[in-house]
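Side project, low priority. Logging it here so it doesn't get lost.
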Amino acid sequence: MMSDYAILLRPIPTEDGGGWLALVPDLAGCQSDGETKEEAITNVLLAIAEWVDVQVERGAEVPPPGEAHRRAQARFAELKLALDEVFDGLEALVAEQEAMVGQIAERDSRIMKLERKHRELVSLLQDETGRNAYAPRIGREPKSSMKPRQH
C-alpha cells in the first residue's frame, strides 16, 4: 500500500541547498528530500510509513491512494460549473447588449428618415414661399390672434 501513493518529485534550487524534494499529495505534510531522485524516493517511502503509523496510533483516518486526485477532480468540476454559470451569464449580457445596439441602430435609422423628410418639407416650403421658412422675420412683430384689451 505504501508504494501505491503518488509521489511528486521536484528539484530543489541550488540556492536552497540543491537535491530533490519528494511530496505525497494524498498525505498532508508527508514529504522528504534527498541528494538524488532515488534517495528522495527512498526517504519519502520511509516518511509514508511513519505518517501512516502516526495516523493509526491517533485513531485518525488514512486516506486511500489517489484521494488527492479525486478531491482535485471534484474541485475542478465545481469550478467548471461555476465558470460555465459565469460564461452563460456573460453570453446573456452580450445578447442583451446586441439587442440594444440593434434597437439603437433602428432608432437612428428612423431619426435619419425623419430628418430627410424634414429637409424635404423645408425645401418644399422654400419653393412655395420663395424664402426660407425658418428665416427670422426682421422688423415684424409676431402675429397674434388676440389683441390686448384696453380698459
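Brief comment: Strands lie at 8-11, 20-23, 31-34.
Revisit when time allows.
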